Automatic annotation (TrEMBL), chain A:
It is a multi-pass membrane protein. The lineage of its organism: Bacteria, Bacillati, Bacillota, Bacilli, Lactobacillales. Residues 16-204 form the ABC transmembrane type-1 domain. This is Amino acid ABC transporter permease. It holds the Pfam family BPD_transp_1. It comes from Lapidilactobacillus mulanensis. Signal peptide: none annotated. Its main location: membrane.
UniProtKB/TrEMBL annotation, chain B:
PANTHER family: AMINO ACID IMPORT ATP-BINDING PROTEIN, PHOSPHONATES IMPORT ATP-BINDING PROTEIN PHNC. This is Amino acid ABC transporter ATP-binding protein. Belongs to the ABC transporter superfamily. Keywords: ATP-binding, Nucleotide-binding, Transport. Residues 4-238 form the ABC transporter domain. It comes from Lapidilactobacillus mulanensis.
Length: 217, 246, 277
């Protein structure tokens, strides 16, 4: 394993760069999309509600690989230039956002109704009430499960390997198939994933602790 | 120009009639207390005034705006009509100071400094200036409700709705909250108060509405006279059940 | 007590490993050591390992379950030459991972499964003479500016199959081109169709199969490596191998080979006649 790490360090680091870039983009994107679609799902507006529910149900129940393949194989006919990295990252974002939407929806629903009523009675518009009062409380409630989603996201970014997305898993596959040191290669790759996900887990746990003590988000 | 006008207002939940043919006009500066047995529609009536509940038929004018008109900006109505809840509903993620300044800053677009100055004045009014930096969860019920009143006042509303403001409080702190409410009344604020505090209704209120079964059964401009000799049989029964009226 | 439990736990952990080892060793055993010529004469039956998922060479017809293709036809012709017209010819679908073990275990008597003759494989099995001059080529959309592997200059992208020799080769022949590796031929072709790359590279046989499926693509520039296909038999089957080579020569001479080539490849645009003998 050490020989793989040493001998193929530059490829592995290159792969990690792509994995981290894809994960960060998907993390921000899926959080934004997830919150938006969570709000659609709980929206009193019927059509937004239906759109939100369909979105969540479709993308939560299709394998990530299928979604990513769709963006890699089908979408470039409409949007040329959608390469493996972009298609994989978009697929990852959408897939994860469906789970985050469900999580955030549950969080919003666990915030007492009185918070929304008080904010509305205070003159705030629906979106202002969401933004300043309900969502911050909802997010705080769901930080632990968001943490899980984010760790899963980093691991799921390995879907890029199937789309020639140059990520860590892709590089691992290439190294394994040229050196035939399959076990060592995947051990090294696993270790590097751990290096990326462990700090993320600790960071989310830190946030969880910190936010339980402070008022504002 | 009246503050609030109900004209033949009805409110249904499916087949259940929560409000029946309500006609009520409230003038500026009036302190109206609404009493009645539970399930009589008092809270529903109150919540229609700032649009937390929508009416099913009739006409409801608040500050000369027709609430049934889709062009009416509900946010503007709510800006002008504050509300104090039974369970306080302070913003759990904000400090006491932020609870009071958030509305003025985000809705009235007041500067942070001005909003904070205002908030401090209000905190002194309700006697809780030293609690400004705390979280709501660190306050007692009575303190929370005084903050909720300060939060409503910070918007400089034309009227404030009180939905059973003392029902969730321990008996020994009810006095503090009622005292603050009396101060607000003394400043000439239009107040509509759903309450079980007959003392407040008698001492502070200058008008009393008795509701039962979704209807207004008695509407009196002399609360003392009402308590001495209620005309409606349901009101007589209701007052009879209340052990001690001071 | 604690110690005992731990020990038991360890034993249970070892069990799957043990089973796996057993299975692997079983696979390695050489069962096919009887003389094929003799047993086939007795049973009047021969079993070939062929590709089941490879257009033009050996593809399973979903409706009938029958495997059809150039290699299947060659196998039939060779069998008849050796054992006579009434021999019963069976076909077993194999893939790149299963074909050698299946031959060694005696599940099949011979392999005709797009298998290139390589020095490494020669250590394991024997090969007949060449029946198809396979080699690596590139395939592009018709009308593409790329006419041969030399046109894969910097700024171009070429799609290959992950872990295959063809990917290592293309890095030699077109070092400036960016190589995108996908997990199999079907995915690589889908990626080419959706514009992820300018060309696709792998064995010409596979590429011909793909172009027969979608004629808007064609193989260009001929093959730039030589990786000829041969029929594989177990070592120690010298008589059988000699018979196969004799049969191959015979069908070549009597025109049957050419007929089969025409049957399968004449419609393929860009088909390079030099790949056949």
């Amino acid at each position: 394993m050490i020989s793989i790490l040493v001998g193929h360090w530059s490829e592995l680091i290159e792969g990690m760069k792509y994995t981290i870039a894809s994960s960060l983009l998907a993390l921000v994107g899926s959080l934004i999309l997830g919150v938006i679609f969570a709000m659609f799902v709980i929206s009193p507006n019927k059509s937004l509600n239906v759109i939100g529910k369909i979105y969540v149900e479709i993308f939560r129940n299709i394998p990530l690989l299928v979604i990513a393949m769709f963006f890699y194989i089908v979408m470039p006919r409409i949007f040329p230039g959608l390469d493996g990295f972009k298609a994989g990252t978009i697929g990852l974002t959408i897939y994860t956002s469906a789970f985050i939407a469900e999580t955030v929806r549950a969080g919003i629903e666990s915030v007492p109704v009185g918070q929304m009523e008080a904010a509305r009675s205070n003159g705030m518009a629906y979106l202002q009430a969401m933004r300043y009062i309900v969502l911050p409380q909802a997010i705080k409630i769901v930080v632990p499960s968001l943490g899980n989603q984010f760790v899963n996201l980093v691991k799921n970014s390995s879907v890029l390997a199937f789309l020639a997305g140059f990520d860590l898993m892709y590089q691992g596959n290439l190294i394994a198939s040229t050196t035939f040191k399959t076990t060592d290669t995947y051990l090294a790759v696993g270790l590097l994933y751990l290096v990326m996900t462990m700090p993320l887990s600790y960071f989310m746990r830190y946030l969880e602790k910190r936010w339980s003590k402070t008022p504002t988000v | 120009m009246s503050m609030i006008e109900f004209h033949d207002v009805n409110k249904y939940y499916g087949k259940f009639k929560a409000l029946k043919n309500i006609n009520l006009t409230i003038e500026r500066g009036e302190v109206v207390t609404i009493i009645g047995p539970s399930g009589s529609g008092k809270s529903t009536l109150l919540r229609t005034i700032n649009g937390l509940e929508l009416i099913s038929s009739g006409q409801l004018l608040v500050d000369n705006h027709d609430l049934a008109d889709p062009k009416t900006d509900m946010n503007r109505i709510r800006k002008n009509v504050g509300m104090v809840f039974q369970h306080f509903n302070l913003y759990a993620n904000k400090t006491i100071l932020q609870n009071i300044t958030l509305g003025p800053e985000k809705v009235l677009k007041m500067s942070h400094v001005k909003a904070a100055e205002d908030a401090e004045r209000l905190l002194s009014l309700v006697g809780l200036l030293d609690q400004a930096q705390k979280l709501p969860s660190m306050l007692s019920g009575g303190q929370k409700q005084r903050i909720a009143i300060a939060r409503a006042l910070a918007m400089h509303p034309k009227a404030i709705l009180f939905d059973e403001p003392t029902s969730a409080l321990d008996p020994e702190v009810i006095g503090d909250v009622l005292e603050v409410m009396k101060k607000v009344a003394d400043q000439g604020m239009t107040m509509i108060v759903v309450t079980h505090e007959m003392g407040f209704a008698k001492e502070v209120g200058n008008r009393l509405v008795f509701m039962a079964d979704g209807e207004i059964r008695e509407d009196s401009n002399d609360p003392r006279a009402f308590f001495e000799a209620p005309k409606d049989p349901r009101a007589q029964e209701f007052l009879g059940k209340i052990i001690h009226v001071d | 007590m604690q110690h005992m439990r731990l020990k038991q736990l360890r034993l249970w952990c070892l069990l799957p490993l043990f089973i796996l080892t057993l299975m692997l060793t079983a696979c390695g055993q050489h069962v096919g050591e009887k003389d094929v010529m003799q047993t086939e004469r007795e049973t009047n039956e021969i079993t070939w390992g062929v590709k089941g998922d490879m257009r033009l060479f050996g593809l399973t017809d979903i409706e009938t379950g029958e495997i059809r293709g150039f290699e299947v036809d060659i196998a039939k012709a060779v069998s008849k030459e050796i054992f006579g017209k009434n021999v019963k010819v069976n076909f077993v679908p194999v893939n790149s991972n299963t074909r050698l073990p299946l031959l060694k275990n005696g599940n099949v008597d011979a392999l005709i499964a797009t298998m290139s003759i390589t020095a490494d494989r020669k250590k394991e099995i024997d090969f007949s003479d060449v029946y198809f001059n396979a080699g690596q080529a590139i395939m592009v959309k018709k009308g593409s500016k790329i006419k041969s592997v030399k046109d894969l200059t910097s700024g171009t992208k070429v799609i290959g199959i992950q872990g295959s020799n063809s990917v290592l080769n293309i890095k030699k022949y077109a070092p400036k081109s960016e190589v995108l590796q996908l997990s199999d031929a079907a995915q690589a072709f889908a990626a080419l169709k959706s514009g992820q790359g300018d060309a696709m590279t792998t064995d010409n046989g596979i590429l011909y199969g793909l172009t027969s499926d979608d004629p808007s693509y064609h193989v260009v520039g001929g093959s730039f490596t030589t990786e000829p296909y041969g029929i594989g038999v177990n070592k120690g089957q010298k008589k059988f191998l000699t018979a196969i080579n004799k049969a191959l020569k015979k069908i070549e001479k009597n025109g049957e080979y050419q007929k089969l080539v025409d049957k399968w490849f004449s419609q393929i645009s860009g088909f390079d006649g030099s790949v056949v003998k």
